[in-house]
Amino acid sequence: MFQELSRIGRRRALQGSAAAFVAFGLLLWWLLPLGKSSPGGSVSFSTGSATGVYQLYGTLLQKALAKDMPRLKVKLRESVGSLQNVERVATGEDDFTIAAADAVKKYQREGGRGADLLRGCARLYDDYVHVIVPQTSSVENIADLKGMKVAVGQPDSGVRLIAEHVLRAAELDLETDVEPVSVGITEMPELLETGKIDAFFWSGGLPTGAVAKLSNRFDIKLVPIKEALVKELHKQGGEAEYYRSAVMPAEAYPSAQSGEAVPTVAVANLLVTRADTDAKLTEGMTRTVINSRDSIGDKVHAAQRVDLRTAIYTDPLDLHEGAGRYYRSVKP
Q: Residues 77-135: pLDDT tens digits?
């Protein structure tokens, strides 16, 4: 009987060891780069303007992917912003992108080519609407922009989309009530500083480098977008429903905010791909996005907002199969 118990004990010990080995292997699979088993080939990633947060985030993510999936080559392509990004991925011109939820919804609502193929991998961080004027400006609210020369972003940019909605909420028409200037964040600061425009709209992560640099060399202020205006935004329906009241923290641009938080509007950014993108690739991409949050967040502070608990919510897009596989693998 003692020999029988010994055999049972040994068998249980072996089973326990095997289980522990499997668990350890799964832990390593989750934590370590995919190495030789990673997907190979190349993918293209549509980002944004050269001085915007999308481009910086894409550059840092590219470096993280080079470590996690060394057989994968990631090509970054600059763009004018979210609307162009969405179209590029939907039509197969690019494989991945970052786009704001309002731009995605607009593309879906208008029945853009390939809209039904769009899928989400992760909710990333929020873009905050900036309305910037000189410190000496008489502008105190959005309605005060009437008759002024305002930079509203380039056509097909997320900035242009949100500027149009915010102005409409203040009962202003972008084409007739202001003098719109179609430039991006690369040109906006200098135009404001030299008096060639009276104000500019920008929608981006906090802080946006171009705005921070401007605030350190030229006295500016942020025009508040109060909750009453956000309620008017929501009445517009469609993509405007994805805007929410937010507060730009006092430390975002200390030189411009005089220690005060500023009410504004925020919209979520999504990591976007297509339904036909390889599931193993999107699983690895999603894993790297989540695991590199802190390292990317050192340079892109907005990326510190990436959170495993909220990343799965990619509305208005369905979650990609590979991304869903990743979230299931790390579910407690």
A: 999 999 999 999 999 999 999 999 999 999 999 999 999 999 999 999 999 999 999 99
Give the model confidence (pLDDT) of 285-308 as tens digits: 999 999 999 999 888 888 888 999
Weakest mean pLDDT among 36-40, 141-145, 304-308: 36-40
Tokens standing for residue 53: 């947060």
Residues near 254 by Cβ (< 8 Å), separated by ≥ 6? Answer: 215
Residue 140 sits at φ, ψ, to 5 deg, of -120, -20
Confidence at residue 37, expressed as pLDDT on a 0 to 100 scale? 63
Mean pLDDT of 255-268: 95
DSSP 123-180: EEEEEEEEEEEETT----SGGGGTTSEEE---TTSHHHHHHHHHHHHTT--TTTTSEE
Q: Which tokens sit at 100?
A: 């704001």
Peptide bond into 316 cis (omega under 30): yes
Find the DSSP H helices in the chain. Answer: 2-31, 53-68, 82-90, 101-109, 158-169, 188-193, 209-217, 227-235, 254-257, 279-291, 293-297, 308-311, 321-329
Nearest to 74 by CA among 99, 44, 97, 94: 44
Strand partners for 264: 246
| Coil/strand/helix, residue 281 | helix
